[in-house]
Amino acid sequence: MTTPPSLETIKRAPKALLHDHLDGGLRPATVIDIAGQTGYDGLPATDVDELALWFRTASHSGSLERYLEPFSHTVAVMQTPEALHRVACECVEDLAADAVVYAEVRFAPELHINRGLSFDAVVEAVLAGFADGEKAAAAAGNPIVVRCLVTAMRHAALSREIAELAIRFRDRGVVGFDIAGAEAGYPPTRHLDAFEYMRNNNARFTIHAGEAFGLPSIQEAIAFCGADRLGHGVRIVDDMDVSGDGSVRLGRLASILRDKRIPLEMCPSSNVQTGAVASIAEHPFDLLARTRFRVTVNTDNRLMSDTTMTREMALLVEAFGYGWTDLQRFTINAMKSAFIPFDERLAIIDEVIKPRYAVLIG
C-alpha cells in the first residue's frame, strides 16, 4: 500500500523550483558570520535562533512593502565576491539536501554593488558559487542542476542594463530575467525596453505580477510585456467566478493565461506573510490546480518564511488533501516551465522525476 505524503516522505521526493530569491534564503548563521567579518553592525540579533525568529516575525507583515524591509540585512552582508560565492554555494547545498533536483535562483545584481563590485563581478561570483555548490551536492549524493535569473528592481531604472547582463551571461548559467519589488505604483510597462531587448535576443523572462496588485498587473505582464511566466499571479482569481455547485467560469484574462499555459510561480507561505491571501487553506492554489492552470510550488524566500520545498508541499497536502500524483504533476509542471533547453528539461523529467515518483506512487 502506498505511503501517503507526509513531511518525512515528501522530503525524499524530487522537486523542481522556479522561484527562489538568493538574498531571501541565507542561513542565519552565515548572516551573523559574514556580518562579523565585514563589520556590518546593523543586525537586530546576533544569536542564530533569535535572528531566525526575527526574520520570520518581521516578514509576517501583511504587506509586500513591509515584507521586503528585512532584506536590507541580508543584502548588506552580500557585498563582496567571497560573501556572494559562499551564499550561492550554501544555497545549492541546502536545496539539494531537500531533494530539489532543479532550481532557478534569482537575485538583483544592482543590490550588491555598494562596495564597488561591477555587475559582471557580482554575477561571476554567484555563478561560481552555484557551480561549487553543485559539485558539493553531487559529492554528498544529492545531484542538482541550478541556473540563475537576474532580477531588476521595478522602482529603479536599471532594467535594460540588467537585461543586457542576462544576455551577456546566457551561456554561463543565466537562463532568464525578472523584475521584482513593490508592485503598486511600479507597473511592468515601465520596463518595456528591457523586455523588448530580451525578446529580440530570443531570451526568456518572468515578471512578478498579481501578488500585491490586482489584475492590471497581470494584464500588463502578459499583453504588453510578453512574460513567459508569472511570479505569484494569485490575483488571477479575481477574474474567475465560482458557482454554488463548484463550477468555474473564467474571464478573458484568466482564459488566455490558462490557454497559453503560462506558468504560475506560486509561493504559498510567502503569500500569507505578505497578505496576498489570508491563509494556506484559503490560497487559490487548489482552485487554479483543479481548473488546470499550470501551477508550480515554490519557496520564494526560505529564510523569511522559514520554509523549504518539502514544507511548502506538505502545507498544500494538509490543506487540500493532495496525493503523490498531484505532487508529481506540480513538479513536472515546474520542470516543463524551466528556462533551460527542451531536451534538458525532458531528461530531468524522464530520468529523474518520473522514476523516483514511480517508487513513491507504488
UniProtKB/TrEMBL annotation:
Tagged with keyword Methyltransferase: no
Any Pfam family hit: A_deaminase
Reaction(s) the record says it catalyses = 2'-deoxyadenosine + H2O + H(+) = 2'-deoxyinosine + NH4(+); adenosine + H2O + H(+) = inosine + NH4(+)
Q: Where is the active site?
A: 211 (proton donor)
Q: Where is this site: Important for catalytic activity?
A: 232
Q: Give the EC number(s) under which this enzyme is classified.
A: 3.5.4.4
Q: Which GO terms describe its molecular function?
A: adenosine deaminase activity; zinc ion binding
Q: Which GO terms describe its cellular component?
A: cytosol
Q: What class of enzyme is it?
A: hydrolase
Q: Which residues form the Adenosine deaminase domain?
A: 14-354
Question: Which parts of the sequence bind Zn(2+)?
Answer: 19, 21, 208, 300
Positions the record marks as coiled coil are none
Q: Does the keyword Hydrolase apply?
A: yes
Q: How is its cofactor bound, per UniProt?
A: Binds 1 zinc ion per subunit.
**Which cofactors are named for this entry?**
Zn(2+)
Q: Which UniProt keywords are present, listed alphabetically? A: Hydrolase, Metal-binding, Nucleotide metabolism, Zinc
SUPFAM superfamilies for this protein: Metallo-dependent hydrolases (SSF51556)
Kindly give the InterPro entries that the UniProt entry links to this protein.
A_deaminase, A_deaminase_dom, Ado/ade_deaminase, Metal_Hydrolase
Residues that bind substrate, according to the entry?
A: 21, 23, 181
Q: What is one Gene Ontology biological process annotated in the Swiss-Prot or TrEMBL record?
A: hypoxanthine salvage
Function of the protein:
Catalyzes the hydrolytic deamination of adenosine and 2-deoxyadenosine.
What family is reported? Answer: Belongs to the metallo-dependent hydrolases superfamily. Adenosine and AMP deaminases family. Adenosine deaminase subfamily.
- PANTHER family documented for this protein: ADENOSINE DEAMINASE
UniProt protein name: Adenosine deaminase
The upper taxonomy is: Bacteria, Bacillati, Actinomycetota, Actinomycetes, Mycobacteriales
Q: Which gene encodes it?
A: add
